[in-house]
């Protein structure tokens, strides 16, 4: 086994992962690569001449240096927008001939596709010594990480409002959540430290050994962790020996840095250093996706981790999905390496241009939000520094029916206000008005163990998540409805 980062972290692997045996047939299959010209009578690999496909051609946006803003050009010029083509045929000369691409391959993905994502990771994060494993996108990637590390009865840590599609995933494996406070700057390191240093293993079981977090444009709150917070969280991970699952689909959609407020369009702008880039121990599992920068239907992404975790991920994949479909892998390989492809420089031009486009949408949405919704004083929002979401705060205390309860009213130690009920009512009114928003309650970390009662989360559910990723022509009408619904809700007789 090649040596990885210096710290042995295999004690984090779950019993399920330790018990999982490598797929014995895959082990024999790998031997076909032991020396050149090995003849295999071993595997039931369909012969490539029987694939009913001999050519795949991709036509993609041109990202040449002569095009100042490739996304804008692509979006607005319709069929006449300049494009680039790359082709894969049975025997090549493409980077990844169909003959090999369409065959069964390894759990880490096709070696060329793995090289493509490794080069992207090295370019943006330069991790010390890590390995990549292809996935079917971040949902698949994160769910696999949970499975790799989670023992029934374990506690995992997550932002108190989190991406519930994924925090739901490990519940059926017996994982329990502990929620960590977040503020406008994202996860609060001091709260994380409080939870971990007060943990009583005799009463509460094993101390949480996994943190799931979304560091850029957090879903749902839109906040981004500063470098200082990232360093503090990483130091806590070393001190309390936990693994960080860095789910970062919005990494490329950074509009301002929380550290120095440099505008992303300025030449000085640098992507914020990821947890992976700081990971000297191998305790970060970084999960990347093509969903938000290419297309979600591609269902392709990758995990970057230490070698032992990579090996365990491959074993899991070898006995389940085998590997992602070939077409996505061909696409990214050709996109980066083919003559006529984008190369890393072109990819970088695309993601920076995409970021400018989303920033434009964000600014338009935020302006409209201030005009149509926030002006009334019934709601407000912080400017999201990354991602696709605005976290709208409803100023419920201005509502005529808003109530606070004193201890002794039978409500202590639970919620001290009627926030939950009022927000449910407001949500229904939005639907009646014709606009769908995401209530904060959807993002509550499910069944999270209570770590404090002083500031119950039920009293902080006065938020809706709004997205600015959708069609621009519906943004203003939707916000007009929202503004009107709020006015009626707050001024009811
Ligand atoms: C934080 C977060 N993780 C994961 C995903 C899912 O990504 P994928 O499409 O790659 O599965 C999303 C999508 O909205 C997300 O916001």
TrEMBL record:
It comes from Meripilus lineatus. Its cofactor is pyridoxal 5'-phosphate. One of its GO terms (molecular function) is transaminase activity. This is Aminotransferase class I/classII large domain-containing protein. GO terms for biological process: alpha-amino acid metabolic process. Residues 75-93 have a biased composition (Polar residues). Transmembrane segments: none annotated. Residues 75-94 are annotated as: Disordered. Keywords: Aminotransferase, Pyridoxal phosphate, Transferase. Belongs to the class-I pyridoxal-phosphate-dependent aminotransferase family. Residues 101-475 form the Aminotransferase class I/classII large domain.
